[in-house]
Amino acid sequence: MHLTRRSLLAASAAAAATPAIAQGTAVAGAPYGLKPGKPYNGAKLNILAVVTPQFQALEKRQAEFTQLTGITTAWDFVPFPALQDKVTSIGVGADDTYDVVNYLDGWGPANAHWFVKLAPLLQRDGISMDRYLPGFIKAASYKGEVTGLPMRSHGQLFYYRKDIFDQLGLKAPDTWDDVIAAGRAIRAKRTDIEPLALSYHNDGTRQSLFHWCDFIWSSGNQILNDKMRPGWTTDSAIKATEFYVGLLTREKVANPASISFVEQDSRVSFQQGKSAMIPIWEWAYSPMVTPGQSVLTAVQVGFTKWPTYEGRAVSCASTLPFSMNSFSRKQDAAWEFMKWLSNPVMDKSNAIVREIGGMKIINNVVNVTENFLDAEVNAANAGVPRACYESLKESDTLPMIPEWPQVGDLLANAIEQAAGGGNVRTLMTKAATEATAVLQQAGYR
Amino acid sequence: MDTVAGATTTARTAAILAVPPRRFVRLPDLRDNQVKYLLVLPAMLVVAATAIWPLAYSLLLSFRSWRLARSPVPGPFIGGTNYEQAFTTSEFWLSVGNSALFVLLSVAATTALALGLALLLVRGGLLRRSVQSLLILPFAMSPALVGISWRFLFNPEFGLFAAMFGTLIPPLAGINWLSTPALAFSALLMADVWAWTPFMTLILIGGLASLPQDTIEAAQIDGSPAWRILFGIIIPQLRPVLVVVIILKTIFALKQFDVIFMLTQGGPGHATQTLVYYAYLNGFKYYDMGYAAAVSWLMVVPMLGLTFLYIKFVFRRAA
Fold first, then answer.
1. Which residue of chain B comes nearest to A407, CA vs CA?
2. Does A204 touch chain B (CB under 8 A)?
3. What tens digit of pLDDT does each residue of A224-249 get?
4. Among the CATH numbers 3.60.15.10, 3.50.50.60, 3.40.190.10, 3.40.50.300, which is that of A5-153+320-366?
């Protein structure tokens, strides 16, 4: 019998799942803490989720959920830039079309009033949030109450072109000064490729802040201080911002196109062999080594932990949780779905099985802490999850307040203008003044 | 046989005569006021539910405080505070300025280009036949698709324009169109003008085709130069159609959203943030529904004025 890597992975996933299913079945009559007896048989749930192979793979696994519960699901996939609008429109209209919604953590507080509070359900069914890393718990909560389950959870890694680094005798950067040095070497010796892909453009999703905040935190500052006032105008914070913007304007190691790049553009630039380094989320590894999406192969893509700034590396943790819509009339069935969707066995299986329902899917995202460290998960994903875990050890989340989108936009616009040649201190001070007005108006006295 | 047949015929005739005359339903008098209102009622109800009610509700909302991030239902009435906030916010005035500039440049460029194309194509022949159907394409495209296509075209690494301008106009080589305020604004204008010029061209071709030819021919026989015929005869006679084109384009430019959303997202900074985009940001990104409603209503005022002008102009012409 010929054993392929894929069949081995599938077999190990099944083997991993079997004891859990058996255990669940023995204890409660249904696995994953699902209610026995299919009490919601015939219910149909509508799910709103961002477009990603990870969730498309989960959709492909729905047959198992239907078999266990009798509940069917219909998924609507929305591109990330449009997701916030879609989620907001549900809140505005008190709309019960979707029973379960997926959103970026930073939008959670503004929509928390219509998300079902999950603590009683978690407690009732013996599900502990401790299975997630603290950053993800924080990102899926508002005012200490859990409003969602982390379902697409990320940490940041620094990717580089291993072949080019080897050719030029460079080693993986430990610090941002190393990044600059490597960038200069690449700029001097490889005119066919830009050294570093960044994304300074504010496309309304504020993704450009995910790099900037690391510099602020690593410099010992906070984005909002304890009194809920901007913390980005201290001398060290301004210096950190100048350093970040200076990668493009002063050091000139960033791809000049970075000023109009959003995260996706910079990732595509790396994938198409136009840039040699990129700091980005761990999930980006999959598209970087997927034929058809990238010109690179796994041997060309190296990665390392987040580089230090001023001797410290505090990276960003982020997640796209799934929450239950309190306007939904099928909340019980929706909770069954949430339990099934988020169970650790599924989480692991989704990161190691490469073909589901005839569809090839490469996903290296896991959510549950044990899966970041799982040997099989890491073997299937080149060790990216473990590296991500290391990066997340010292991490933080963007402020979890309802006003963050507005405050974040002020910041993102200021940084974009600074990258265009504006004065960092002037722009950041102006953003702080405007943000203070927003925060005061919101009642933070 | 004949007797039998004759008897049958007689019996049939008698039976027919025995049937009381059919009473036809009297059709209502269509000139009756009540009936005509009844007939348009379904349409009126649909319009009321889908247009008038949302408009009225948003007007009410503009006088209330509603921070969606804090409350799922609208808060108390706060008078004109939302409007006052708009008038005292620099970002609002920046958006007003951007909108005005965008409308001015977009209308001028679209109208001029459309007129030029219409003059070229009105003569007919192979050029018109082949180009006229192609002209429909940009107009038929979804505005969101226009925006995203132009974003690809302007991509500094893979974009067609980056390569084309770099080759044809060397000083423009390596320029990142979407990174500086003036160039991003220009890119937005180019996308908008590209999308709307064909439609306006088709309207103007129709207008030109309906112009009386005798005055033009007389001027040609008299040896008037082409520019004089254009400015002295054609444009004055085309004025009613031009006015319609300008009013329509002004309305479309004022409410332009999709292309901005896909191409520049109002940036860099606030450089391409128009009033529509500003209202959208406040409503759907910052969750301030009351303020977003107020900003939207401030935009409704010029739109209503333009619509009134358009209706008045078109119907006066029709009359």
1. B286
2. yes
3. 999 999 999 999 999 999 999 999 99
4. 3.40.190.10
